[in-house]
Amino acid sequence: MVIGNRRPRSNGMLPLLALHAVSEYYRLDRKPRVTAGLIAANALVYLRPAFLDHILPSIQEVGFNPHVILKYGDLKRFFLSPFYHAGESHLVYNMLSLLWKGIQLESSMDSAEFASMVAVLLGMSQGMSLLISKSLLMFFDYDHSYYHEYSIGFSGVLFAMKVVLNSQTENSYVYGIPIPSHYAAWAELALAQMLVPGVSFIGHLGGILAGLVYIRLRGSYNGSDPLTAIFRGVFGVLKWPVRFLQRLFPRRQISGRGRVGGGQRGMSVTGFWRCHACTYENSAWLDVCEMCSTNRRGDGYGNGSGISPRSPHYSGDLTLEELRRRRLERFGRW
Fold first, then answer.
1. Are residues 152 and 179 in the same domain?
2. pLDDT digits (tens, 9 = 90+) for 214-256
3. For residue 153, is it within any domain?
4. Which listed residue (155, 172, 293, 308) is catalytic?
5. Catalytic: 155?
6. Of these residues, 204, 293, 308, 311, which one is catalytic?
7. Could you tell me if residue 199 is inside a domain?
8. Same domain, yes or no, for 259 and 183?
9. Which residues, other chains included, contact 64 with Cβ-Cβ below 8 Å and sequence gap of 6+?
10. SS3 201
11. Which of 222, 242, 262 is the last residue of a domain?
12. Residue 204 appears among annotated catalytic residues
């Protein structure tokens, strides 16, 4: 999207984005961590909290401008402009699109491969936009709208991701209209130009071309690319503290949360024993089941018979009504 002159104002859409993103993230068995990280990065850049405000360049310093990038070699405009957005609606629309596309793509590959793909698509979409703008200037002397235009936003990468995602299906939907997947990105490009004023045509076109080139290159390459291997190494380093803490503080089963019916009988885990009558898991400090009053057996505790003195006629599995009666009797509420 083309940069405006006014500072964007909040209109309350970010909390809705956060709620939706968290809801989608936690309902999935396999967490799309890279997608979540990208959304968080874009949101933090937009919000500019105090601890980042003095580090992040201003939006005027990072706007993608082919003329400035090529003339002065300003690479921060090349790499950082996708993470800046002109307003809250611009950010929320792009992040919802990233959430939907990212969940599907990251679920179809591992996170390291997805991170590698996003990095490649970002560089290629920016490069394509630069190449198109320069070509229009050189061959057609057309520089008014494109070569000197400032633009920001993640849209170019999203269009590239859409091309990659559509390559895995036969049909797609653009604003609710079913379209063959090969033409879906082109249709969305045309509709975006007609329906959304101020969007960067070159940025979106560069994203589509980047997606097409990526698919062609990925199809001709066997095995894991070097960039994916690098991301796997980085993720391995980042996971090491988590694995260390898990080994340092292993999860322990909480006493008093056994279950009635089914399961194995006898000793369960260290520090607990499972009642052979009702399968309730009791603390090792107890020799009588808290649920049904049956004594612990075969381990030197209680009378060794496995039958509570209060229930001399026990045989077979206990019914729920019998369990209820024994528990009420045990705690004096009969």
1. yes
2. 998 887 776 666 677 777 777 777 777 766 676 777 655 444 4
3. yes
4. 155
5. yes
6. 204
7. yes
8. no
9. 77, 78, 81, 126, 129, 150, 151, 152, 203
10. helix
11. 242
12. yes
Q: Which two tokens stand for residue 135?
A: 């070509």
In a domain, 35, yes or no: yes
For residue 8, being part of any structural domain is answered with no
The C-alpha atoms of residue 205 and residue 194 are separated, in whole angstroms, by 14
Per-residue pLDDT tens for 26-65?
888 888 999 999 999 999 999 999 999 999 999 999 999 9
Q: 3-state SS string over 16-85?
A: HHHHHHHHHHHHCCCCCHHHHHHHHHHHHHHHCCHHHHCCCCCHHHHCECHHHHHHHCCHHHHHHHHHCC
The Cα 185–Cα 179 span in angstroms is 10
Number of domain units in the chain:
2
SS3 state of residue 64: strand
Same domain, 157 and 287: no
* 3-class state of residue 250 by DSSP: coil
Tokens of 332: 């004096």
Q: How far apart are CA 122 and CA 78, in angstroms?
A: 9
